[in-house]
C-alpha cells in the first residue's frame, strides 16, 4: 500500500487533503467536489485517481496502518528491548503529533470503510500492537501477555489523544511529556 501512495504524489496529495477535510467536516459532510477543489481538481477529475470517496477513505487508512506496522516492525527489531521501546515510542509520538487529522479520521470514520478493507486495516493494526507486545515481553518476561497488550492499547489511547491535548505546549515539550508518560505506563 505504501508504494502506491509514495509512487504517486497526486494520490498522496489527495489523501492528505481528504484527511484534513474528513477530520474537520466528517466523511459524510465532505463531497467528491470538496475533495477535488481542495487539490485543484474538479470532482469528476478526482475519479481518475480514485473510484470514489469510499476508496479514498479506505486507501488512507490502509496506507497509514501499513506504514505504522512496517516501521513498528523495523524499530521493534532492535536487539536491546529498551532501545526498541524508545524507538517505538518516538515513532508513535511523532506520528500522533504530526497527523492529528489521520487519528481523528480513523477514530470517527473506520466504520465507513468497506468490510474487506476494514478487515485488513484491523489485521495491520493488530500486527502493529503485537510488535509492541513482543518488545514488552522481552522487557518484562513472565508478565501475562494480556496485561502487556492492555498496556499497549492504553498507551495508544494516551498518545492518540493528541488531537485534543497537544495545543497547550510546543511540539518538543509535548513529545517529551508524552514519552515520559507513555514509558511509565508501559513499565507495568
Describe the structure.
- With 188 residues, the protein is an all-alpha fold.
- The chain is 77% helix and 0% strand.
- The chain has a single domain (53-185), classed as Tetracycline Repressor, domain 2 (Orthogonal Bundle).
- The chain has helices at residues 2-7, 9-25, 32-38, 43-46, 53-76, 81-98, 100-109, 115-139, 145-159, 162-165, 171-185.
- The two termini are 35 Å apart.
**Content of β-strand:** under 5%
Label the CATH architecture. Answer: Orthogonal Bundle
What's the structural domain tally?
1
Distance between the termini: 35 Å
What descriptive keywords fit this protein?
mainly alpha, 188 residues, elongated, 0% strand, Tetracycline Repressor, domain 2
Topology of this structure?
Layout lengths: L1 H6 L1 H17 L6 H7 L4 H4 L6 H24 L4 H18 L1 H10 L5 H25 L5 H15 L2 H4 L5 H15 L3
Helix pairs in contact: 2-3, 2-5, 2-7, 5-6, 5-7, 5-8, 6-8, 6-11, 8-9, 9-11
In short:
This protein has 188 residues and is an all-alpha fold.
Amino acid at each position: 500500500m505504501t508504494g502506491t501512495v509514495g509512487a504517486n504524489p497526486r494520490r498522496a496529495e489527495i489523501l492528505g487533503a481528504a484527511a484534513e477535510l474528513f477530520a474537520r467536516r466528517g466523511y459524510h459532510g465532505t463531497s467528491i467536489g470538496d475533495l477535488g477543489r481542495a487539490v485543484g481538481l474538479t470532482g469528476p477529475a478526482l475519479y481518475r485517481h480514485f473510484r470514489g470517496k469510499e476508496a479514498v477513505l479506505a486507501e488512507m487508512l490502509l496506507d497509514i496502518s501499513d506504514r505504522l506496522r512496517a516501521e513498528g516492525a523495523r524499530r521493534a527489531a532492535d536487539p536491546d528491548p529498551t532501545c526498541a521501546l524508545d524507538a517505538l515510542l518516538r515513532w508513535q509520538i511523532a506520528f500522533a503529533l504530526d497527523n492529528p487529522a489521520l487519528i481523528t479520521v480513523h477514530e470517527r470514520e473506520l466504520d465507513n470503510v468497506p468490510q474487506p478493507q476494514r478487515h485488513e486495516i484491523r489485521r495491520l493494526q493488530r500486527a502493529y500492537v503485537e510488535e509492541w507486545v513482543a518488545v514488552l515481553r522481552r522487557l518484562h518476561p513472565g508478565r501475562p501477555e494480556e496485561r502487556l497488550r492492555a498496556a499497549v492499547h492504553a498507551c495508544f489511547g494516551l498518545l492518540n489523544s493528541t488531537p485534543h491535548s497537544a495545543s497547550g505546549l510546543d511540539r518538543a515539550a509535548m513529545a517529551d511529556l508524552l514519552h515520559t508518560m507513555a514509558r511509565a505506563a508501559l513499565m507495568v
